[in-house]
Design a protein that fits this description.
The model has no long low-confidence stretch (mean pLDDT 92). The chain has helices at 11-21, 34-43, 50-64, 84-94, 112-122, 127-154, 163-177, 181-196, 215-219, 227-233, 244-251, 263-269, 281-293, 308-324, 339-364; strands at residues 2-4, 25-26, 69-73, 100-104, 207-213, 236-240, 298-304, 328-333. Helices cover 55% and strands 11% of the residues. It has 365 residues and is of the alpha/beta class. This is DUF2229 domain-containing protein.
Length: 365
Amino acid sequence: MKVTFPHMGNMDIVVKALLEELDLEVIPPPPITKRTLSLGVRYAPESACLPLKINIGNFIEAAERGADTVVMAGGIGPCRFGYYNQVQREILVDMGIDLRMVVLEPPDNHIGELLNRIKVLTGAHSWWRVIKAIRIAYVKCQALDDLERQASRLRCRELNRGDVDRLYQSGRDAIDAASSVKEIRQCRDDALTRMTALPLDHALRPVRIGIVGEIFTVLEPYSNGFMEKSLGRLGVEVSRSLYLSEWVNEHLFKGILPVKGHHRTRKLAAPYLSCAVGGHGQESVGGAIEYAQEGFDGVIQVGPLTCMPEIVAQSILPQVEKDYDIPILTIYVDEQTGDAGLMTRLEAFVDMLERRKQRKEQAAR
């Protein structure tokens, strides 16, 4: 069995760690490129959302490297993510690519259902081995999220452009290579310490922007035009409403771990959107409110073109914008999204927020 998986942010490191701990041969798809997206666009339905097209490209490129099995998460609710498995299987079969799909569906009742699905891959391995593999993978997931948070906070403050990204990448590589919980946490702590020790403008009071939206386009830099890096280089401190470890805990682990979830976010959204609409539509509304309450200067909502949950959220956000006096920019992405056009919108939004921040500070004197 030669196992692959789709890309989504740092998920490649996490899934690879899980599978290798279970002695499976792992064939990661190559990094997402224009070719990856072009393959997905060629073979996926035109109306399909961007994440599905990128996933198809991932699987085709992994199959070219010899993969014969795909492991991916499943979904529930109105979001089309729940249909990805079947749609992707049919597309690949039509192309003559025979990939076995193993879908880790969200458990209906308890985490034991997830363990059973993972054990399908492992054969004779003990339950203890499966649990140990999950722990190693999840600790890596948390460590990588910690690095991302730090990088998003410090990128706007670096005096030498590229320092933060360089240390982030070296920390990411070290966590990828680590083989024990102790080693993973040491690599994380070392990377965070080195980032903090960089030459930084500690006096800077930057514009702060919160990013909300659909999980794939929030977590996967290629899909959003490397938005966080671009904003950092524009002098913006960035925060995301979604991180991979939080999503795994809520989506796959039924929220059993004591990490930050989205209960408060959904509660904040309730006066505007009181029921789940699939994906992270409710969390986008609640996340925007939470950022407003925390004093952020603006919010960016990002999602794939035609994403129903984010369209629902977008229809509500103008009222949130009015009620909480916080500017909100919505950006939808697909294969037609150009870097120049995206950058122009980000620059204009940041410029508006900077002027607004200055006026508020002058009025407060």
